[in-house]
Amino acid sequence: MAKHHVSATVNNDPVEFLCETDQTLLDCLRDELNLTGAKEGCSSGDCGACSVTINGRLVCSCLVLGVEANGMKIETIEGMAQGDKLHPLQQKFLEHAALQCGICTPGVLIAAKALLAKNPNPTETETRYWLAGNLCRCTGYDKIIRAVMDAASEMRKGA
Amino acid sequence: MQERVKSPKFDIIGTRPIRPDGADKVTGRAKFGADHKIAGQLVGKVLRSPHPHARIKSINIAKALALAGVKAVVTREDFKEQSPEFIPAGEMLVNYRDVLRNVLAREKVLYEGHAVAAVAATSETIARQALKLIEVAYEVLPHVINEVEAMKPGAPIVEDGMITAGVTPPPTTPSNVAKRVEFTLGDVAKGFKDADVIIEREFNTKPVHQGYIEPHACVASVSEDGTAELWTTTQGHWIARAHCAKLLGWDITKLRVTSSEIGGGFGGKTVVYMEPLALALSQKSHRPVKMVMSREEVFRASGPTSGANIWVKIGAKKDGRIVAGEAILKYQAGCFQGSPVQPGCMCAFAPYDLENVKVVGYDVLSNRPKVAAYRAPGGPISEYAVESVVDELAATLKIDPIELRLKNAAKEGTKAAYGPKFGPVGLVECLEAAKNSPHWKAPLGKNQGRGMASGFWFNIGGETTVSLQLNEDGTLTLMVGTPDIGGLRASLAMMAAEELKVPYAKVRPIIADTSSLGYNFLTGGSRATFSSGMATVEAARSIIKQASGRAAKLWEIPEDAVSFENGEFRPAGDNAGKHKPMTLADIAKVAGKTGGSIVGYAAISAQGAAPSFGVHIADTEVDPETGKLTVTRYTAIQDAGKAIHPSYVEGQFQGGAAQGIGWALSEEYIYGADGKLQNAGFLDYRIPVASDLPMLDTIIIEVPNPRHPYGVRGIGETPIIPPMAAIAAAACKATGVRMFELPMSPPKVLKAMKDAKAGKKA
Ligand code: FES
Ligand code: FES
Question: What is the pLDDT of residues B696-748, one digit of tens each?
């Protein structure tokens, strides 16, 4: 079967790729565009390791088809740092040791950034419920929640 | 009493620098198992058994091979038989007959999901089509899933002809019991005779999966000359190398294994599954082959830990002194022998200083995936049961559960039932810290209860090699061989920097591949910071010695007349002040002229790993309408010996606690009557999510391990031991009923509460 031609914007860069009808956006990012920052933990929408945003909306890229990305603005973990300046969330994750193995980290960071875009001053409970779609098996979430709230507070000061 | 080593003053140890691999991990740059790619690679896929137990009559691969784009198929025919003897592989004793059969079924499939064949094709789609074209003729056999059923006479036999080991005289008929083990101390019969109170209970636990978020993944590339490279996500690449070389009949030196960044292991990545298949497929197809498990495959075909049936009996005097403890443990091994029942037996009563103990364990086969190690393998199950009975004992005797434990706590000099006498251990300190913690004294709300429990784990040392290179600009490169799963590189760089008195950022640690460094046993047994740390310190001290030699040469004075203080090499004694002190960087600069590159190398078998005790406190709240238990407050207290990087120590406490909370409340393998797993996904196999948990408070106790240069104890495994019993104790307070089964999921809790109410009325 002929592949589909998709044009999209990824991390502000125009991209084009060919994909199969049933290929997920996650697979397109990883296999066609070599952006392996988004991870596959389940491919069923349960772990959030594949989190990206499409036109600003947080999605599991394993549940989106590559063809659906046509004309969309996609942001992935690879676009989060600006030059050599880490995003405050990235910085706080390092300072708080909010990652152990780090496989969940790209997804958690993308989800946390989407949270702070909507709600710059989340409570602990709001943060926990927002991140409930991002599984982390290593940390017990304690340091993740602290890092997100600390980053939020720093970003509020900066804003 | 042995004198406890005093903690020296440290500059870097005990601080919290950012990990060396941190930036790569927050930017998506870090390469995990599935992120590796080689030009021309094929996609490898596994055909798995739909039956829990069946004889394989034939496998026909002709149609699959004929499909365009299919480059290779492997089946049992491609692997030579292995001996059933347990032979050394690194530091483990391995029965390669079973390893081989778990990688690829031979006579029979033994669980739903058991690998039967593998294909390599030019695309994922073609590989999937090819799997459908493989024709397997099965003779379906009766299956057995539950360990108690599997032990009954007449149960379907999983391994034909299996005779129970450890029983004299040996049984004459085959059974599913692979072995019986027993540990005794003193005389339990006499102990129980002296008891004022005896409590006897039976418990059941379900298999739980390690649940690492990264599925197994590897890329294999075999060259025409028979040399091969393997990239894989593993806790031990030397172990992966040993297993693959053995199964494929290759010389070890021909196989170079690189461990990728690893997305969680918890014991589950200490074995091989697809790696030998990928290598065999690559050898046959002359192309690199990449294989990645789906989440469903991870659940169905990689090791959970044992489900178990446990019986515990404890006798005590009225004042709370325990006089006898006895237990019988029946652990599921999965379809091949080797459940962690032995460590389960050894741990069961380890937190107590007892005179009379008897523990008997059975290793029981059933038609389930072969269990793999899971954080403190075996310990959480037996200690859950014992700790639960101890809690009931405290309630019966109306003694505070911490006081009861303090009365009986293992301490330095205690002889454990499994043999050794403990050196300095921190259980009493943990219990005191629990008693004095704000958590233990805080008021509770409605429908809430509080519980606590102790935990013990041995920890290991083992074969470890590191290489520390002094670069020409004075910076250092540290090569280690224990995969870093949660901040190891940070801790090791800190130890090297501490020893050499250089800034932390000047030491760059990497995980070396199997061809670049001597043998390393795997990251497991809470050994990595302990053993690789010990080797790193030794390598750093070797650098100091070599550098002193170079300074001596330059100054033309004897080597022992050079001292190393505050990061400077100085002429000492009679020569003091005669030469300008040199830093490591000064010496590095002239290394080429004074004898060549300076490399510290340490190849050790780390001895003196010390156990770590922990105490957890849990508050739970029950929803009386649904039976749902929620953990509302949690504190993990543990003896770390010495916390090198306290954040990562806390992280281990928290991560273990969270896994234990899942084990206690929501995680379980659910099988249908058809012998098939019904919840092979994260939606139905519920690991705790952020909204399920409270903050997880930690208290680090430091009773230094005298056998480690900095006092380190392994700490990674103990934290998964206390949660189940602590939560069960808390749930008992919250609901008014004592439960003896895990997980304490809402339907079970609701039923227990209803039954208790009905019982009261009747
Ligand atoms: S991989 Fe998309 S949610 Fe798990
Ligand atoms: S840090 Fe390992 S899964 Fe989150």
Answer: 999 999 999 999 999 999 999 999 999 999 999 999 999 999 999 999 999 99
Say how far apart CA B378 and CA A39 lie, in whole Å: 31
The enclosing domain of B620 has a CATH number of 3.30.365.10
* Among A112, A15, A147, A24, residue whose Cα is nearest residue B651: A147
DSSP annotation string for B697-716? EEEEE----TTSTT-----S
Go through B471-496 and write b for each residue having 16 or more CB atoms within 10 A of its CB, e for each that does not: eeebbbbbbbbbbbbbbbbbbbbbbb
With the C-alpha atoms ordered B238, B240, B243, B246, is the resulting torsion angle positive or negative?
A: negative
Is residue B564 a part of any domain in this protein?
A: yes
Domains, in order of start, for chain A: 3-79 (3.10.20.30), 88-158 (1.10.150.120)
B640: exposed, middle or buried (Cβ count in 10 Å: 0-12, 13-18, 19+): buried
**Nearest CB to B264 within list A30, A36, A137:** A137
Which residue type, as a one-letter code, is found at position B525?
G
Rounded CA separation B105/B75 (Å): 8
Domain that holds residue B438: 423-459+610-761
Report the DSSP pairing between strands B42-48 and B289-292.
parallel
For chain B, the domain total comes to 2
Ligand 1 pocket (Cβ < 6 Å) reads A 40-43, 45-50, 60, 62
Last residue of a domain, one of B606, B639, B658: B606
Torsions phi, psi of B346, nearest 5? -65, -35
In which residue ranges of chain B is pLDDT below 70?
1-8, 89-92, 761-762
Contact B27 A78 (CB under 8 A): yes
- Residues B522 and B236 sit within 8 Å (Cβ to Cβ): yes
Q: Is any Cβ of chain A less than 8 angstroms from the Cβ of B152? A: no
Residue B650 lies in a domain: yes
Tell me the per-residue pLDDT of A94-113, one tens digit each, with 9 for 90 and over: 999 999 999 999 999 999 99
**Cross-chain residue pair A101–B26, CB shorter than 8 Å:** no
